[in-house]
Write a structure and sequence with these properties.
With 457 residues, the protein is α/β, with parallel strands linked by helices. Helix 8 runs antiparallel to helix 9 and helix 13 crosses helix 15. The radius of gyration is 29 Å and the shape is globular. The two termini are 41 Å apart.
């Protein structure tokens, strides 16, 4: 299989001071992901390289830009604000609230972005690095992320050939105000991403903490939207034009699906996964891809999605009340293992267990039962009867541990996300599901429910 069909996911991040990168996966996926980090400050890059203990991560001391040329790096008081662009003096009086850890302070841009030293650097384009073989991995990036304080548009311009080779996701900082003089703003990046075949998926993070006026606490309201992190996902219809063969097309589809899901865009990821099925089946997949943890995760996700009842809302508001919403028991729990353990029962059993333990502990300290106990110690006698009753009921109630996913009423899909520690994406799915189900149970809506695939008895 050619190098370009490598089943590993290659994540390139420019502006990596402190090992910061937006594409983060739990340790379970470490063997599947290779990170290539670029840092313009050579001293910082050397320190990162010495302290790095990961074998699947590279730190490269390059200042990436739009073309190869000699330039300068403005290292600011806050080194994370360093840029090849000069800080804009018009924004010197602007401030924003900053919350590092459990602290808080006002960051004045004139102080935070004040240039502390100017370093001469060689600016190189990403295309030239790949052409000259200076990147440790020949395969193109699967995800390219940028955080370079204003030069993101320049970097994209100098990486068009590399992006067209197979970049599936583009995560970049965007700015709405020229905090750095003459820097490109959001409209340039939106245009470039659209021309390169990407959807604008959304913001991963936005900051509205910039204001030209500083007021005391208690008078602060909304501030100006200053900057944020945007995600662009490749249009699935462009994958065929990038692929060298069917295997390459299939692997790229799986990678795009996984990247989208990790960022929380589950619907788009599942749509791309369905597209991959039209190229080849799971059994026909190359051995290299079948050995990957993210491949197993995607296949389990696909099978779980087919098991669940397919609940769709009506595409318009229907004034006619619909039937009460009722899903099959195995829509939310595995029918082979725990079909009889309903969610309500699990909650009741936990409360019962707490009550049972408390009462029995009190009753057991009451000593041996004697005939006059009901008359002399009526309260202890009642507790003893309750304890005996609870012990008898214990054979009929099978308590579910608090750590069990069934106690938390997770769907099959949510259980898989929880197992792989993709908690951020899990929280998004759970929030949307619970909000919709809550409304459906309270108000008349029209919907359709198609039973999912059931396990064979």
């Amino acid at each position: 299989m050619p190098t370009s069909v490598d089943a590993k996911i290659y994540a390139h991040h420019v502006g990596a001071r402190g090992f910061a990168a937006p594409f983060g996966c739990p340790p379970r996926f470490d063997a599947d992901i290779v990170q290539i980090l670029y840092e313009a400050d050579a001293d910082c890059a050397e320190q990162m390289r010495k302290s790095d203990n990961k074998t699947n991560r590279y730190v490269l001391p390059y200042c990436i830009g739009g073309e190869n040329r000699r330039g300068t790096l403005n290292v600011t008081v806050n080194p994370y604000g360093s840029s090849v662009y000069v800080p804009n003096k018009e924004y010197a009086s602007y401030y924003g609230e900053v919350y590092p850890g459990d602290d808080v302070y006002d960051a004045i841009f004139g102080e935070w972005c004040r240039t502390e030293k100017v370093v001469d650097v060689d600016i190189v384009s990403l295309d030239s690095l790949f052409d000259d073989g200076l990147v440790p991995v020949a395969a193109p990036p699967d995800i390219l992320s940028l955080d370079t304080q204003g030069s993101e548009s320049d970097i994209i311009r100098g990486a068009k050939k590399t992006i067209r080779r197979g970049v599936l996701a583009l995560a970049t900082e965007i700015e709405f105000h020229p905090i750095y003089s003459e820097q490109p703003l959001i409209d340039d990046i939106l245009r470039q991403a659209r021309e390169l075949g990407f959807h604008f998926a959304g913001f991963l993070h936005t900051s509205d903490e910039i204001s030209p006026y500083r007021s005391p606490v208690g008078l602060r309201g909304r501030s100006f939207l200053a900057f944020g992190d945007a995600l662009f996902l490749r249009k699935v219809e462009t994958l065929k034009d990038l692929a060298e063969n069917d295997e390459h097309h299939y692997v790229m589809s799986l990678k795009l699906a996984f990247i989208a899901i990790v960022f929380g865009f589950t619907e788009y990821g599942m749509g791309v996964l369905a597209h991959a099925e039209t190229i080849m089946s799971e059994e026909e997949a190359p051995a290299d891809i079948q050995s990957r943890v993210y491949f197993v995760f995607l296949m389990r996700l696909k099978k779980a999605a087919r098991k669940m009842d397919q609940l769709y809302l009506n595409t318009r508001v229907d004034p006619e009340p619909s039937k009460p919403l009722k899903l099959e028991p195995d829509a939310y729990i595995d029918s082979k293992l725990v079909q009889w353990k309903r969610r309500t029962k699990s909650t009741i059993s936990q409360e019962y267990r707490i009550f049972y333990r408390t009462v029995c502990n009190v009753a057991d300290r009451g000593g041996r039962f004697v005939w006059w106990e009901p008359f002399r110690y009526p309260r202890r006698f009642v507790l003893r009867v309750v304890a005996k009753t609870l012990r008898y009921m214990d054979r009929f109630i099978d308590p579910i541990p608090l750590w069990s996913p069934f106690h938390r009423s997770m769907t099959l899909i949510e259980q898989i996300f929880n197992e792989y520690e993709l908690y951020w994406a899990l929280a998004i799915i759970q929030t949307r599901r619970k909000r919709t189900m809550s409304v459906l149970r309270r108000k008349p809506h029209a919907y359709t429910v198609t039973p999912g695939q059931r396990d064979e008895p």
